[in-house]
Known about the structure:
Elements: H1 11-25, E1 29-33, H2 39-45, E2 53-58, H3 61-74, E3 79-84, H4 87-90, E4 98-103, H5 110-117, E5 121-130, H6 140-148, E6 152-159, E7 162-169
Parallel strand pairs: 1-2, 1-4, 2-3, 4-5
Antiparallel strand pairs: 5-7, 6-7
Amino acid sequence: MAENEFLPIIGPDKGKILAEAVRKVNPKHVLEVGTLIGYSAILIGKELDEKATITTIEIHASEAKVAEENVKRAGIPPKVEVIVGDALKVIPMLKDCYDAVFIDAGKSEYRQYLRLMEDKLHVGTVVVADNAGIFADQMRDYLYYVRNSGKYNSSFFQVGEDGVEVSFKM
């Protein structure tokens, strides 16, 4: 499907960085903001065992349905819960704490997402933010925060014209 029409998924090159970050923390609870068709949830899920869970939030019901089907078809070990809704409203209702987070949704809202989930993150949690190269302007407040707040050890990884910001909570 992604080959026939443009879908803004993380793709294989940035996906390797995401998978590496996930491997480093061996998470039991993962939060993803922006599911789309489930590509990154599957990518993350391939790094986890059956004791792990992935909670992923998608604002569009039709894409969430496709994601659920793709995740089921992929047969990855962890339990995946796809929540349909606006992440700004869903995140405050979540009860779990998370070991890994992947953000790939409304670029200008990345800082708001992080602010809402910060009390659900512990020391060592990795937060991977997609599109930190081509959308750096829209993500300016997020990037400034993770790089300068003293709460994260953060690095940018350039991939072609784009990249990902990988931040570990201190």
